[in-house]
Structures are given as structure tokens and as C-alpha cells.
Here is the input.
Amino acid sequence: MMMLKHAIEYFRRGFRVVPVKLPEKKPIVKWEKYIEHQTEEDIRLLPWYLANGIAIVSGVRIDNKYICVIDFDRPEAYDRVKHILPDTYTERTPRGGYHIFLFSEEEPKTRSFRDENNKEIFSLLGCRKLCVVYPSEGYEIINDAEIATVRNVNALVNKIAFELGLLRVEKFDDTPKNKLLELFEQVRPYLNIAKEYPNYFTVHCPFHPPDEHPSFAIYKNTFLAIDFHDNKVYTLKELAKALGVKLREEPKLNTALIKTMNTKERANYLAKYLMSKIKFAEVVYSGNEVELWYFNSKILTPNARRVINKELRRLIGDLVSRNVVNEVEDAILGLTDWSFKRSELDPIRYLPFRNCILDLETLEIKDYEELAEDGVAFTYYLDFELDIELFDKIKRGEVKPEDIALEFDRFINRFYDKDNKRKLLYVLATTLLPKVQKKKVGLVIGEPDTGKTTLKEVLLKVFGSMAATSSLMLLKRTHFSLLSLVGKRLILVSEKPDYLNSELFKQLTGGETMIIDVKHRPTFEAPIYATWLFFMNDPPVFDKVDEAVVGRIVIINTKDPLSEDEKDPTIFDRLIAEKNKIFYYILYYYYLLSQGTLIISEDPESVYSTLLKAYSNVFEFVQQECELGESFEIEGKKLYEAYIKWCAEKTLKAVGKQTFYSHIELYLAKENIGCRITKGRGHVWFKGIKLKDEGYESFDLSEVLE
Here is the structure.
């Protein structure tokens, strides 16, 4: 019997084994007596003929170590933390979870970590717990390595829980970031750092040596240190004290001394004090005008004057005046070493996350401080941490888009066929291109109830500070509106005006550097590099359709409007629940684009025809009522009379005569046939075209036009 054979193999390796019935995972026999002692004969006498699974008893001591299992119910949780797990024997469970087998020198304590809905995310199976194992039905070995030994599995589990945001840290250190960096540099020589990650350091614990599998971490965003052996949290000052490290004294503000200083001395004294706590930077506008900004954590933020005023009032109270604030601001501008050009903030090459920065050109991970030293700074970041393991899986081709954001993938598949889905994802992928260039513009066109508004609102949430809603009409008439486009990667438009200004359209989608007016601030130059995505029921109407406009447009057609039975009021909330995953979904397609494997078929003729049809019903009239040929010709007046009657019959609005003539010219030029000519006393004729039905009678135009 296969189950008995494998059970004996487990036993000979030191395990206690129990037959179970699946899928209930129910033991077939009373098994508690086997925790302390079990023989091979005991195993042979068990009723394996009733079993379709084997379980081992966790927490059993084998060669002075305890066998234990970390059970991940959520595969995405395992993916997020597997980089901190030792290389060890691992199995996949029938529902896609993972069993991580370990030996621990410390006794494992059974624990379960759950979400807000009380559903288990992962657990540690310690003493007196059963764990179903291969070759039970549905279980498979994915890493056949030797079982690794850790000193304290409980510390490792704490570390996993913290990585997954399941352990709350109540402590908070409000010391300014630049000061924390200084403190860390003072403490760092006394730490045995094992490895540096983009958002934290792992350290061989100084309080629980030798800690070969580091269970002590210092997180870069807060610089709090956590000992996962006992979950004790240290600020850097507390850590320094525990290590016996003497820190350099912080400067103290001497209010009495300030009162004796002259204006310049006071300004410099206060400026240096504030700069010891806050990182300030000079921002240079066009014409070398400057403003003082400050770093709010990683983000460069304007209105440093407001921060200076607030801090000075807290520090010196009634001594503060407008003049004092101005003097201190000027002094800081003269003292700060940090300087950034306003036009170069939020460079398109880099994608800032909460924990690190992704270089979209090299696909390498960068640090905020490292780039700031090179003159690179950001006014926003994506408000979540880059999952480096997931991104590495994307680059290695180990994950499919539907594995990343299943709900979003289903939504896209519902409303777009294969070709239009590819076009949509191509346009979204171009939002992450690392260079300023002409961008494709997506026109998502379809009937109502094809998910257009939902998609727009979801993308607005997904891109956060990198997206904006706008319109060409608003930008044309509002003086300061261009500022809303600076630094954006995606502009979402849902309105359909009567006419789109083609010249402004080409400017804004061509990667041009434009002069940006800011109310009550200096002007500056900046490139507009956003990708535009329009959502509409019908194609837009441009005031001029030319090759440059056509060449930038990708038409994306929706399909199959929802029936009343299909409408789901929860779909938006379900999509928003995976908004971070949707960004990785788009990042997946950007990676394909960067490797040259995401290509769409371009059909400029189809785009041209679609835009021309929207541009004027004259083209529809020509296609229905006229014939083209080199030998044909017709008087313009007669052709226009036929057009007016055709509009009346179809209850369409007719354009004026001169507009009609220019549209006929445009159509003939597109077809590369015929032209407009003048005969007699300035009468307009057209060569290359005639009416199919010459039976149109002359009539009074004024009656129809009324």
C-alpha cells in the first residue's frame, strides 16, 4: 500500500505519522498517544486501507530539535515573504497554499494570524498539531531540499507577521528624517547587518546571538528597530542606549541668547537650528527665481515658510514676527546645500513608491537619498510599497496577469475582445515609458453600459497622484490649468465637446516642453508627458484631421453592453479592493512593452475614416449618394442642394455651404482623386465626383435650412 510505504519512510526520518481521511483532514485513529512514542509496528497496524492521506505530528522533538510547519493559506502572503525564509523542504496544498517545514531549536508555539474577516492568512503549527503531507491527495512537493534548522521559529513567525502588516507597532518616533539618518549612522558601526533591502535592514540580533537566521530588523521608513525574538521595539535612541552607544548631543535652543542677538545673528542661529531638524531645499524656477521647499519624509513639498512659521512660534513664541520668519527663510536659502530645478522634479524615468524608486529605464531599484544626492526629487509617490519579489517574478516570466489581478482581468475580458484588450493595455503600458516622447492617445469608444465610466474611475484610484481628469476645452480656456498636467502619467477624459482643438491636442500629446503659469508664483518650463485616455460613446470631433492627429490615436472599441441582469453594484468596490494589484497588472504589460513584445497592429486608414465620419456627415453623404471617378465632375451648388435634401430626409443638421465645399475637398484629397475648380464667374465645381442619382431637383435652400 502506497500510504503505508510513505508513512514508514516518514517514521524512519523521525516523524510521528497518523492516517487521515480527506478532504476533512480527519484522523482515522486516536493519535495523541503517538506524540511521545511510536514504533514501526504501531504504524503497520494502523488502518491505512481506510485512509487517503498522511499527517505528521508537529512539535515532536527529533535530535534535540522540534519539527514544525509554517502553513500559508494565502499564496500571495507566501510570495511576499519567501525572500526571508530559509531554503527548506516545501509542499503546495490542494487550495494553492504552502507548507514550509522547519526544525527549530526553540519550542514552536502554535499561532494563527487572520485578517479583519477572521480568515486565516498563515499559521505556525507547533506542538500537538497535525499537518497533512505528500503523497496525500492534492499535495505536491515544490522544493525537495533538506529541512532547514532555525534557532527560534517563533521569532521568524513574528518577522513574517510584521512583513505582512499583521503585527501592530504602537511606538512612534517623530524625529525628523534627516536627524534619524544621522542617528542611524552613529549606531550602524555597532550593528552586524546581514543584508540591506530597499525598505529595511536585517541584522544579526545583538541581544540573542548568534542569530544565524537574522530576526532583528531596522525599517528605513521609521528607523524603528524590532527584535522578533520578543517583539520588542526600539527607537534609535533606545537602541543606542541598549547597545551602550554614546550619541552626539543635539543642539539646544537658547532663548535668552536669542534676545541679545542682532537681526543677522538671530536669523542664522534659528536657521541652523531648524535645519538640524528639517531638511530644506532650494527650488529654482525659470529666470533663476527661487523658493524654499522642505522634505516631508521622502517628498519635496512647497510652502516651507508655513513650516518655519509654525516651528518658530512653537520654539520662541512672542518673539516671532513676519520679519523674523522672512529673515530665517532667507538665511536657510543661503545655508542649504540642496537645490533642485522646478522643471526637473518628478522625472519621467523614475517611478516612486513608498519604500523605494523603480528606474523604468534599467528596471533597477533605487533609494530616495541616493537619487536626491544626484539632484532627483519627487512631489508624490505611489502610496504603497513596491513588491520587489512580485516584480522579479514578472521579469522572470513566472506569473501571468490574471494571477496578479483576477477581478480586473475578468472585467477587461468582459468588455473588450482580444485585439481591443491588447490595444487598451498597450496604451496603459505607455504611461510608464521612461522618456518624454510622442504618446499614443487611447479613444475608448462604445455604447453605454460597457464599463467605460467604471474603468475611468478605477484607473484614477490606481494611479493616484500620477493621474488627473481634465479636458482640452478646459485647458484651452483656463490660464493656470496646465499645472494640473505637470508630473502626471495618465490624463482621463470622459466629456465629448463639439470640437477638439487639434493643435492643442498635438502639443499636449507630443512630449513638448511648455511654459507653466502658477498663480502667485514664478513661471517655469516643464514637459507634458502624460498618456491621454478618452472615454466616449461616439468618436470625438476634431477641428482639423491631419496625419499628425491620426498617427497618435489608438481606437479601442468596447463590446456587448450589460443586460439589466448582469449589472453588479459591487463591481467598483471589488476592483478598488485590488487597486494595487491592478498597478502590477499594468506594470506587467509595461515590462512586455520595454522588451519589445507588446505590439499592436496600427490601422491609420481605419482611424482616419472614424475621425472623418465624426468630423462631418458630409463624408457619409458622399459614401451613400455619390460616385468617384477621374472623368466625373459636378457643380458645387448642385452637389450641396443634394446634400441639403439628404440631411432633411435623415433629420440631420447640415453644415454651411463653404464648410461643405471644404469637406468635399478634404474627402477627395483623402481618396487621392479629383479637386475643386472654378468655372465661369467664380462658380465652384468638383472634378472626380458625381451623384449616383442625377434626379435631384433644384429647390429653395432657405426652406430646408429653416
Notes: The first strand starts at residue 17 and ends at 21.
